[in-house]
Amino acid sequence: MSVYLIARITIRDRTEYAKYEAGFMEIFTGTGGEMLSVDEAPEVLEGAWACTRTVLARFPSEAAALGWYNSDAYQKLARHRFNASDGEVVLVKGMG
Question: What share of the chain is helix, strand, coil (3-state, %, to 5)?
């Protein structure tokens, strides 16, 4: 069953975050994941959406998503994101 990763990121340091962006696709490619959207100006229909970047990705399974997220390569790269931003990242199960 597909799972979707949703990340709401508030970028505080664009220079440091750029280091994360520069290495992201190299690590993401080959995981079975598909980047569906990266948006810095989503249309808010209800409530408040204070983050500066919203990311939506699909993975073929929870195991694939967690394998990518927990990999040594991603966690090493993610330090740049952790240093440059605040965020919430969740996995949401698909419907079937």
Answer: 40, 30, 30
